[in-house]
Write a structure and sequence with these properties.
This protein is an all-alpha fold. Helix content is 81%, strand content 0%. It contains 11 helices and no strands. The radius of gyration is 27 Å and the shape is flat.
Length: 294
């Protein structure tokens, strides 16, 4: 019976893990609806397209119900905070799916407690780790997305400034430019464009973008565009100034990173390179000295 319980718990954990790494059905449905409205594609054009892998099609009907039930039981403030964290990580799943994954990992971590003894302490540690592991994964994913956005934002502003000065409107230039970049630029600014095309005010859509990607560079860009709309300042001049500022900030960061290199090299030099060098240079002399004393 213990072996059967362990096998069932491991199978449940693996199934939930495979389901969690796939995009949620609700997010896919919303994205497809937005794309259909924006691009005016007929509904029947997507009916013949495959709807995910076999594992996704088998697991989603079974796990969507428990995930939605857990999400409904969440307090409103906690659910909004969790949805905000998921949005910063690229919305890889729904809050209910994340909670379901937490419980599955915690149950799998408690399995060593079936053997008793010292294994109970290990089971408690693994259960706590399983509960916290999705949080670590979300934080790492959000940090990676912010780093990628920070790296691509200066080039994006350069192309956007050139496109607007060439005569394109801000929305048209943004749509033309974001197609040249990969994630997370394409996903975040593509969502911004869909919201604008659906009628959301530009200031609200830009502030929502800044909330999803909390970065000083992006906050400065959003604030400059919103102020330009409010004051009637030409966007081309604002974009030119933002582009020059981003290039200056990028040079300063590169210079700062170059200055940190000697400090980072100090540890491997002192503890790895210098000892080996001293052994090679002083080793024969020490051996000769010891032989002379004998």
């Amino acid at each position: 019976m213990q072996v059967l319980a362990i096998a069932l718990a491991i199978a449940l954990g693996c199934a939930l893990g495979l389901y969690a790494v796939a995009p949620s059905a609700a997010a896919e449905m919303q994205s497809a609806q937005l794309d259909r409205i924006v691009r005016r594609r007929p509904r029947g054009a997507e009916e013949g397209a495959p709807r995910g892998t076999l594992v996704e099609r088998l697991l989603r009907p079974m796990l969507d119900g428990p995930a939605q039930a857990l999400q409904r039981r969440l307090p409103k403030a906690q659910g909004e905070a969790l949805a905000q964290r998921l949005g910063r990580a690229g919305s890889p799943m729904t809050p209910g799916t994340l909670l379901l994954l937490r419980f599955a990992l915690m149950i799998v971590g408690l399995l060593p407690a079936l053997f008793g003894g010292v294994a109970m302490l290990m089971a408690l540690a693994l259960a706590v780790l399983g509960w916290r592991l999705p949080d670590f994964w979300l934080s790492r994913r959000a940090a990676q997305r912010q780093k990628a956005m920070q790296k691509k934002l200066p080039d994006l502003l350069d192309l956007l400034s050139v496109s607007v000065e060439a005569g394109l409107g801000f929305d048209a230039a943004l749509q033309r430019v974001t197609a040249r970049f990969g994630e997370p630029v394409t996903g975040e600014f593509g969502r911004l464009l869909r919201e604008l095309q659906l009628g959301r005010p530009r200031a609200q859509a830009l502030r929502a973008l800044a909330e999803r990607m909390p970065m000083p560079d992006l906050d400065a860009f959003v604030l400059a565009i919103v102020r330009a709309d409010e004051l009637g300042t030409p966007i081309s001049a604002v974009l030119r100034a933002q582009s020059e500022q981003m290039r200056t900030v990028r040079r300063q960061r590169a210079h700062e990173a170059a200055l940190k290199v000697p400090v980072k090299m100090l540890f491997p030099l002192v503890f790895l390179v210098f000892p080996a060098m001293f052994i090679i240079l002083l080793g024969p002399a020490v051996l000769s000295f010891v032989k002379a004393l004998k």
